[in-house]
Amino acid sequence: MATRVALRFMRECSLYRKVKSNHISRHCFSNAASATTPPIPKKVPQFAKKGRLFTGVAIGLLIGGGAYASTVDEATFCGWLFSATKLVNPFFAFLDPEVAHRLAVAAAARGWVPVEKRSDPPILELNVWGRRFSNPIGLSAGFDKNAEAVEGLLGLGFGFVEVGSVTPIPQEGNPKPRIFRLRNEGAIINRCGFNSEGIVAVAKRLGVQHGKRKLETSSSSSATEDEAVHGGKAGPGILGVNLGKNKTSEDAAADYVQGVHTLSQYADYLVINISSPNTPGLRQLQGRKQLKDLVKKVQAARDEMQWGEEGPPPLLVKIAPDLSKQDLEDIAAVALALRVDGLIISNTTIQRPDPVSKSPVAEETGGLSGKPLFNLSTNILKDMYILTKGRIPLIGCGGVSSGEDAYKKIRAGATLVQLYTAFAYGGPALIPKLKAELAECLERDGYKSIYEAVGADCR
Ligand SMILES: Cc1cc2nc3c(=O)[nH]c(=O)nc-3n(C[C@H](O)[C@H](O)[C@H](O)COP(=O)(O)O)c2cc1C
């Protein structure tokens, strides 16, 4: 198609030149007839010549590029699109962090992001909670707090996307500015404080998307076959819903129960988030007795609801990286006793490890995420894998920015991996790169699947 356009363009150009030269010669002839001296050709200014040359080269490149692009296969073209997104990163870096974030969510919500057409390396495929993940790399909570862009984000090639944290009643969160970049350290400090449109707005949005996704599922092949393939009852891609509590609420359990009642029907898994450092008192819910009471109530609320054959969504707890050995033992004991389906390790830290401590931004109140969180969260992950004896699927989160990092999380005990900060800096191009690197790491060390590598460093 592009070749045809190019040929046509060239033909039209040569025709134009012919007509022009005819016109000039006719013009010269009439001049010659009317005057005795031959006309002096007009001198073309140097810059105009250069301008024409430049335009010609640009058009040539455009046409040549278009013609070449039309000959490459879909996978190569898809790779180009993902790489091209790197061009907009400097523009985002220039904007205020929260404005940049809003823009990114809006773009993903409108489908102005590339769609991953290439299939994931088979070695990355796995089954957790009876759900099939085409790869173990997920987007963690906080990016799409209000479930505005689930389709666009899943389309980028994440194995799963977690929306939220969603609070029962809409709330503004903390005053702005509340997100701070530490670019050189590959980190962010945030004190968002659960800014959320609330469970009703999110349920409405997920209801529309859920209906659409269901429709797509049933129209392509048979619904049962598709559900087995994609694992998620919400259609292609796995969707997690992360629940938070309102700042003013005095009954945390009631808040999480409300979240379960309103949102669990749309979720492939649910998360009780008791580890955000920006909601006063929240982290105290990680104490042994508090956690036990809370999990029991939330599990009961979920189990009382009517569920189809696939059963209720698994219930996970997201914990902080700032926990003592005793805290970790308590959480592990509760998780094992109450058969919690999974733990996410971890949320952001209130610590300021080197080199962040040297930055003036380090003084901002809030949770630190990104590269400086990697060691802290990976150590806690390892401890928790040992304490839970590998019986509970763990999601490793904190400072992942490469396939090697994701691999380290898996070796430390994670079955699935999540990231946020590295995606905020690296954009869509990071995801295929990270998946390819992870597959390489597994193959390099002779693993045939992710399961074989889970907890390898704890044995
Ligand atoms: C701006 C921002 C907002 C976040 N909001 C939430 C949230 O609402 N709920 C939650 O559980 N985690 C939230 N997180 C934490 C992330 O989900 C993740 O646990 C943490 O950032 C560590 O991962 P990372 O180092 O890959 O960013 C947020 C993180 C950032 C940077």
UniProtKB/TrEMBL annotation:
Pathway: Pyrimidine metabolism; UMP biosynthesis via de novo pathway; orotate from (S)-dihydroorotate (quinone route): step 1/1
Principal localisation: mitochondrion
CDD domains per the UniProt record, alphabetical: DHOD_2_like
Reaction(s) the record says it catalyses: (S)-dihydroorotate + a quinone = orotate + a quinol
Cofactor(s) listed: FMN
Gene Ontology biological process terms from the UniProt entry: 'de novo' pyrimidine nucleobase biosynthetic process; pyrimidine ribonucleotide biosynthetic process
Ranges for region Disordered: 212-233
InterPro entries assigned to the protein according to its UniProt record, in alphabetical order: Aldolase_TIM, DHO_dehydrogenase, Dihydroorotate_DH_2, Dihydroorotate_DH_cat, Dihydroorotate_DH_CS
PROSITE patterns linked to this entry: DHODEHASE_1, DHODEHASE_2
Membrane-topology annotation of the record: Single-pass membrane protein
GO MF terms, alphabetically ordered: dihydroorotate dehydrogenase (quinone) activity
EC class: oxidoreductase
Subcellular location: Mitochondrion inner membrane
Enzyme Commission identifier(s): 1.3.5.2
Protein known as: Dihydroorotate dehydrogenase (quinone), mitochondrial
Species per Swiss-Prot/TrEMBL record: Sesamum alatum
Lineage per the UniProt record: Eukaryota, Viridiplantae, Streptophyta, Embryophyta, Tracheophyta
